Each structure stands twice: as C-alpha cells, then as structure tokens.
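Box 3.1 — From sequence to structure: Kinetochore localized astrin (SPAG5) binding protein
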Amino acid sequence: MGERENSRIPLYQEKKQYEATKSNDRPAESMKKTVAPKFEVPTSFNFAVKSEKVGAFKPQNPTVSKRKIPQNGVYKGPNTRLRVEAELRDKNQLLEASNLELYRNLSEAKENIAKLTQKYTGLEGESSELKKQLEKCMLFLETSNIDPVSGEKILETAKQNEEQRKEVLSLSRNLQNELEVFSQKASEHRLQMQEIKSKVRAQQEEIERRLKEKENFQTELQEMEKALDDAQQLLDV
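Predicted structure (token representation):
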C-alpha cells in the first residue's frame, strides 16, 4: 500500500492550553482569535443592477472562506478519523476486488470474441468455397442442359412434355367429339321417347273412350232387354 496518505477530512482538534502561569496572566491570549475576512468592493459595482456576476465581494484570504464549519457542533476526534479511514480502506478494497473481477470478465469476453471471430473467419472461408463449387456445378448443368432439380436433360424433358401435351390434346378432342355424338344421340332418343309417350297417351285415351262406349252400349242393351221383358209380359197377359 506504501506510506499512509494524509486524510483529507477536516479535523477540529482541541485547542491546547498554554501553561498555567501564562493562562492565568493572559487568559485572553489562550483562545485563538478569529480573523474576519476582508472584502474588497469592486470599482465596477453598481447597486442598481441585480446580478450575481456584477459587484461580487471577494475575500482577500480565500483559505479563510473555504474553511468548513462543523454542523450542529459535532466534534470529530481521532477515533472518528480512524473509523472513517477504516471505512474508506474497506470501500477501496471492495472497489479493487470489483475492478479485478470486471477486468477478469473483460479478459474472458475478449478471449471469447477472439475465438468467435476466428470461427467466423473459418466459416466465411468455407462459405466462399462452397459458393465457388456451387457456381461451377450450375455452370456445368447449364452447359449440359440438365435440370438442377430433376437431374434430367432439359431438351429431352421438353420433348417429352411436348409429346404428352399432344397426346392430351388428341384425347381431349376425341372425348369432345364423343360427347357431341352422345349428346346428339341423346337428343334423338329424347325425341323418340316423347313421340312414344304421346302415342301411348293417345292409345290410353282411345281405350278409355272405347270403355265408355262399351259401358253405354251395355246400359242400352240392359234397357232394351228390360223393355222386351215388359213387352213379353204384356203379350202373355
């Protein structure tokens, strides 16, 4: 730690008394006289101007004005000074320990950053190498007319697709023709069915008409038989 530094805390020590003979003869000189600071009035002072910068009184002896006066008359002796110095030493030790811990953490963080930077550099080199290889592969596939997804040649695939498209078109056309023929036949069958239905309806109407005529004929026949029976009975009488 080195030599002990002088404390900066102001101390107010007890005033030493002079010898008994001197204190008895001259009691007024045993107390330290308080020197009042002398103030100088500046030449540029103006009482009409209200400003803190203009006309400020300055003491001749600045050390007297900077002297700290103890609050509430609290007396700080040697024990208080030692206690304050011990507290300050403890605080300094704690600060030094925390600084060492922070320095250690900073060193570890720097080491980790260096390792990560090295790894990133290696990965970046690998990535650039892979990009170069990928570009070479794409160039080879392009020159060979090979699809990179399916792995087949582009021209052959295009031809196959064209053939399949033609087959699909022919099939769709044939199917469309068949559908047209079927719809035409269906319309013809529909007309035939309508004609058959109309004929059946006419035959049913004719049958009903003939049944009615038969019923009427039977009714007339019964009436005629009854009239003959009545006439026969009259003849018999």
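Summary of the box: The chain has four helices and two strands.
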